[in-house]
Design a protein that fits this description.
The protein has two domains: 104 residues, no CATH class; 93 residues, no CATH class. It is 36% helix and 18% strand. The strands form three sheets. The chain has a three-stranded mixed β-sheet, with no helix packed on it. Strands 2-5-4 form a three-stranded antiparallel β-sheet, with no helix packed on it. It has a two-stranded antiparallel ribbon with strand order 3-7.
Length: 265
Amino acid sequence: MRALIALLLTVALAAQARDQRTASVGMRAFVEQIVIPGTQLEPAPSKFGAPVVVRVVKTWPHGEQLRYDLEWVGFEEGTFNLLDYLVRRDGSTKEGLEPITVEVTSVLPPGDLEPGDLEPKTSERLGGYSTLQVVVAVAWGIGLVLILFVGRRRKPRTAPPETPATLADRLRPLVERVQGGAASDAQKAELERLLVAFWRERLDLGDVKAVDAIVAIKRHEQAGALLRQVEAWLHMPNPPRDVDVQHLLAPYRSVTADRFPPEAG
């Protein structure tokens, strides 16, 4: 009876598992509830410029074998075997295993090899000096008429200037959703895109490949602080929740949000 219940539970989990073997460059995908023979597998040591990164989300015993939930991200277009980025914990060989083949597709125009740099967006200017003169003259004339004929003095009302939104204002809701575990895949990708775009400009990494730029940013003490914390929230079993988000967002208050336009849908 216990064996039958275990079998039914396995079948139910397999039916709900995600098996995402194709994903766009930079997007997270999952291969879940996959049974792999042999001793336990874990991510291979990260290599600078690796085209694929694989994480072992969870592992369960499955008879004499093991069952895995894997998460992977591709940084270059092509076909890859996830097993090439995993190693045995005990150092034994992976010979004889069926490949776990995934495909990374590009969302860039034909001929582009990596994401292009964001184009700076010029902020809009207020009306010209002649327009201001006209407005002032009309206001002065109305005020004069009211003084002469109504006997009541009114001061022109001017709206306080709006403070432009900063990149920190734009990042805050994305960061809070990731911290609370409620962010969608699109929101996670947008958050990572904004952080990488900001620091590629700030650290002069515009000529560096996207995947190498991400590695360099993560290693930087200040630049990688928020990016590392986001990864901790996404992948650690018990990530810290009492994090000072305002402190993490401090470097992003120096630029306005319109410097980084939304990604085209």
